[in-house]
Specification:
3-stranded parallel sheet; 26% helix; globular
Length: 107
């Protein structure tokens, strides 16, 4: 990764928050999963774009969001690709823009 940060407008939803304990992992109930997405500002009808550093964790959130019925896209290049363009803001200085309903939501 060329630089730290996040895509401006993104909200953090750790993939591990969607599962039970490590000893016997399982997906949480749909109502609990929906609450996690609501807690980061996702509303019914929003389009979600999942990403992480390299794509692995974003794949899990992509699956969960689709299972819940959200319109979801997967940013395959994830933050590694995003951060390589020097013209893009990395949000690493805390200056990230407010969440975009049509932009990245989970990281």
């Amino acid at each position: 990764m060329d630089r730290p940060g996040h895509i401006p407008g993104a909200q953090n939803l750790p993939w591990r928050s969607t599962t039970g304990p490590d000893e016997a992992p399982f997906l949480l109930e749909a109502s609990a999963l929906l609450a996690l997405f609501e807690d980061v500002g996702v509303e019914p009808g929003d389009r979600i774009i999942t990403y992480c550093r390299t794509g692995g964790q974003a794949g899990h959130l992509h699956f969960v969001a689709r299972m819940l019925g959200f319109e979801v896209r997967f940013y395959d290049g994830s933050f590694v690709e995003w951060s390589r363009n020097p013209e893009r803001s990395g949000g690493g200085d805390g200056s990230a823009a407010p969440a975009h309903r049509d932009g990245p939501v989970a990281r």
